Task: structure prediction
Amino acid sequence: GLRCYHTAGTDQEAEFEEALRTAALEAHAAVQAKAQAEEGLRMATTLTLAIVIWPWVYVVQVGDSRCYHFLRGTLRQVTRDQTMAQALVDEGALAPDRVASSPLSHVLVSSIGGEEAKPVVTRFDIKDRDGVVVLCSDGLTKHVSDAELAEHLGRMTSSEQLCRDLLHLVLERGASDNVTILAGRAPAA
Result:
């Protein structure tokens, strides 16, 4: 399936992006089959996966785990949460500044193993080696704002230190969900 990685960054990269979406849907089907085999068991998860094919990062996302790109003091959320609240914002029925307080902010409309999976592939470049890529579950973003994340990224000394500091912050604030944090930057030229 992913043997077409050589098409990344070319005019034929749609083949690679489709292979990424297909892989996510295969994972979705496998989780659904496992849940069906274990009668009455509900299984679902989010997926945010980054594949680097220099100088591009391809992100596959299902659910509300996120990918961020931090560059020169600016934090950009690369992915879009696949939640009911975000869907209402997209339809103009909910103001963007009310998402965080909405009870629908963590109700998934897409998940691996859930009712439906809608994998989205996003591509961005990391030619500027000063950038940092962060992948995280909503266990982090429930407790740490984007402004706080940017502040920590701005003073990071290493990916390990950043992840430890953010995890410590989440634990101090009650850690109401599981927490996954990955961070990395391109090696110096």
Observations:
- The chain has a mean pLDDT of 92.
